[in-house]
Amino acid sequence: MKKIVTKFGGSSLADAGQFRKVKEILGLDPARTYVVPSAPGRRFAGDEKVTDLLYRVFAQREAGEDWRETFDKVAARYLEIAEELCLTLDLPAALDEVCEAIAGGAGRDFCASRGEYLNGMLLANYLGWRFMDAAKVVYFDDRGLFESEKTNVVMMALLADGVPTVVPGFYGSMPDGGVETFARGGSDITGAIVARAVSADTYENWTDVSGFLMADPRIVKNPREISAITYAELRELSYMGASVLHEDAMFPVHKVGIPTIIRNTNNPEHPGTLISLHLPVEPTQPTITGIAGRKGFSVVAVEKAMMNVELGFGRKVLQVFEEAGISFEHMPSGIDSISVVVAGDALAPHREEIVTRIADLTQPDTLVIHDNMSIIATVGRGMVNNCGTAARLLSAMSRAGVNVRMIDQGSSELSIIVGVDDADFEKTIEAIYTEFVG
Ligand code: ASP
Question: Helices 68-84 & 16-28, crossing angle to 10 degrees?
Answer without folding.
Answer: 50
